[in-house]
Each structure stands twice: as structure tokens, then as C-alpha cells.
Amino acid sequence: MKWNAELYDDKHAFVYQYGESVLELLDIKQGEQIIDLGCGTGHLTKQIKDHGAEVTGIDASAEMIEKAEKEFPGVDFKVADGANFHFNKAFDAVFSNAALHWMHKADDVIKCVYDSLKPGGRFVAEMGGKDNNKHMITATQQVLEKHGYKKLGERRPWYFPSLGEYTGKLEARGFRVTFAAHFDRPTLLHDGKQGVTKWLNMFGPAFFEGIPAVELKEILGEITDLLEPTYEKDGNLYADYKRLRFVAIKE
Ligand code: BEZ
């Protein structure tokens, strides 16, 4: 997927703002060597460096890495595929926030993470878990189907595993999972009633490929109308995020 890194930073800063609490779970020690996997525009990578670690941010999107390098010139960033990366040194930790759900080849990702860690190294992450944004996805499918785009609704841009599925994969690779949780985190959508449209334009364009602009506007309005009764609280819209968080140790 091609990312609009400017729009991402401008309107979707909540992605890395929520990630700050995942950083607490990472519990960085001075001088540790850390990979930030799926670093996006690099805000958390910079914070990891500010905590005293030597960090490399990697992301499959050249647009995101270009923006990160511009904004944080003293930080090390590389374009790399999460399912196929390799370094010539071993790391103390791999951190990942809101990125693993874009990586469908989870077994390959977990192998790359495992291989890049020192013995005793840790993998600390948060991603969308099972049923993340279920209402948003269901509403999108319903409206696309109504407009005759059933096939587009069947597209699955994201991988939202259950706790058992992902931790099972971690264990199968040789990790010991010392913490895992699957919890609700309603997430504020910016710009009021436009929030659903903006979120879907940013993160879900795969659903809408080839739909003429006028019809798309209508479709997005209908999706918002369907979601409003469940998403609205005190005049704002909140998406039904469900997070999966874990700490896994390479024994
Ligand atoms: C998430 O953080 O849960 C998420 C972000 C973008 C697309 C899908 C899920």
C-alpha cells in the first residue's frame, strides 16, 4: 500500500500517541540495541533513542521512511520488509506498535524477529487483535454489497489474530510469552462526523479501488450513518479498536 505520510502525521497522530504506553512495557535500558519494526514516520523510534537506546527504525514504506528521516535526522531508519529482514548484529529488543496487523506473513515476521534477537532478547508489541474494528468492517461490507461491490468488501487489508493464534505462533518459534492481553480500546476519530471517512481513506483504500469519486462519497456517508449509533459518544465518534499486546522472550 502507498502511504500518505503527511496526512498520517497530521490526522492520525493517535497511532503513535497510544504507542507511548507500549513503550513503558518495553522498559528500555540505557545503551540497549533495539529495532522499531514498522516504525512509520518515526515518532516512537525517536522516543526510544531519547530513552538512551541505539535504535533502528524499519518500515516497508519508502514514503514513511523518507518522512521519518526528514523529521528526525539523527535517528537511524531503513526501508525493510517486516517478513524478510536481516541484520548482521543481534539486538536486545524488537518493538512494534500498530504495524504487525499489516504483515500477513506472521510466521515469517516472527522468524525474522527471533533471528534478530540475542538470547534473552524480547519482542514487545501491540497490534490490532481479533475483531478489531469489526463494526467498521461489517458496515463497509454491507454498504459495498448494497452498491454491487461484494468482491471489494471481501478484501482483507489487515490481519487481526486472536491472542491464542498469535501467541501460539510465537511459542512455536521458540519464544516464551510472559505477558499477553486482548482488550477493548475505543479510539477517537478526528474531525467529528468526517472521522469514519478520513480513517477509511487513510487506512482502508483497498476496499474502494476503482469506485467513482461521487459514488465513493455516497458510500462513505452511508457507512458513517450505519456506524453512528454504535460509534457516537458525547458528540464524538469512537472506533471499536481491540488491541493485542504481548511480551515474548527468546529463551
Ligand atoms: C489499528 O491500529 O488497529 C489499525 C490501524 C490501521 C488499520 C487497521 C488497524
Task: Explain the overall architecture.
- Helix 9 (195-203) packs across helix 10.
- This protein is α/β, with parallel strands linked by helices.
- It contains ten helices and ten strands.
- The protein has one domain (5-250): Vaccinia Virus protein VP39 (Rossmann fold), CATH 3.40.50.
- The strands form two sheets. A seven-stranded mixed beta sheet has the order 3-2-1-4-5-10-6.
- The model has no long low-confidence stretch (mean pLDDT 94).
- 42% of the residues lie in helices and 25% in strands.
- The protein has helices at 5-11, 14-26, 43-50, 62-71, 106-116, 134-146, 150-153, 163-173, 195-203, 213-231; strands spanning 33-37, 54-59, 76-79, 91-97, 117-128, 175-184, 187-189, 232-233, 236-239, 242-250.
- Bound molecules: benzoic acid.
- Residues 98, 101, 128, 132, 158, 203, 241 line the site of benzoic acid.
- Benzoic acid (BEZ) binds at residues 98, 101, 128, 132, 158, 203, 241.
| Helix percent band | 40-55%
Total number of helices: 10
Structural category is alpha/beta
Low-confidence residue ranges: none
- The percentage of residues in β strands lies in 15-25%
Overall form: globular
Largest sheet: 7 strands, mixed
CATH-defined fold name: Rossmann fold
CATH class, named: Alpha Beta
- Rg on CA atoms, Å: 18 Å
**Termini separation (Å)?**
35 Å
Bound compounds: benzoic acid
